[in-house]
Amino acid sequence: MIDRLQYFGITHQTAPIDVRERCFLDEAKSRHIHHVLHDVAEGCFLLQTCGRLEIYVDSAADCTAHIRKVLPIDDHGEVKTGRAVAEHMIRVAAGLESQIIGEPQVLGQIKTSYTDALDAQSLSPLLTTLIRHAIHAGKQARQAMTLADTSPTLAEMVVAHMAQSTGTISRQRVLIVGCGHLAQDIAAHVAANRPAQLTIANRHMGRALALANKTNAIAATTDNLGQRLFDHDVAIVCTAALRHIITPDMIAADATRPLSILDLAMPRNVDPAIAAMPTIDLTHLDQLTAGRSIHDKHRRQIDTIIAQTLDRLHQWTTGRRVAQTINRWLASADHPDPQVRRRRRRRLHKPIMMLKKAIAA
What we know:
By secondary structure, this protein is of the alpha/beta class. It has two domains: 2-148, Glutamyl-tRNA reductase, N-terminal domain (Beta Polymerase, domain 2, 2-Layer Sandwich); 154-288, NAD(P)-binding Rossmann-like Domain (Rossmann fold, 3-Layer(aba) Sandwich), CATH 3.40.50.720. It contains 14 helices and ten strands. The chain has a six-stranded parallel beta sheet with strand order 7-6-5-8-9-10. It is elongated and about 95 Å long. The model has no long low-confidence stretch (mean pLDDT 87).
């Protein structure tokens, strides 16, 4: 049964940020993928983060041609089948395939995507079980890691980048555009370093005020964002917008004041053309993140967790296949005459017990 699993993915390991950006799925594209796979797959699961777009499929048929209709997997994609698919999902849940090794956010993203998939009824029993096993293994793997193993969080890396590239944070005027989970984490870390000024800008003033009150910051809307940029030394942009909200025309051609911009969104919120402007220092997500290796001792522990999880998944799939076989045998023994039905079932008793014993062994 596990050989039905298929994986199609584009990640930070296989594709640069501009390719991942073009492949980013909005709600309409996600529905289209489900529609394309509806007649050929028993279930599918989509996982999309800043660093990856992955499609997990449960199907007896090769779905590569169907996926190629909606995802350019030829040049930058990766295809896996069978046990390799299950192992990959477990490694993703453990944070081993992330740009920041061991980061916890991906486990939450898997849980959210899993909930969405349950609501959409797009999962098969095999995918449901795989995801549950992966989430459990991801939690175990993080318990096996030490602080020395795990990389700093993205918010910590942002603060370190600011200190290195723009100098002492206490002298900087910092603008954070966005109020999502990442923006909240970054705002807390920046505020802890007591910047000269911290401004939270959001499309909705109420959300900006809520975050500003927690971080002793100034709240603002994203109106006149171009002018607001140059009232600050650093701008950190991480909104859910699916387009560029900062473009070259928003920046005066004769601007002389330096500005450092960190674009942490996917798709990017800042037009990459801005990097050519002499006063702008633009950094995007892939330029900022870098993983740290895990100690060999803990790596062996995590490898054991992965192997044990794969064994449990194999036991589940084997047990399910056996149960289906037994149900077919019992159905074939059905007969309107109760005596005939009993005789047939008695003849099946020994092979059924032998099959169960073989599985238990």
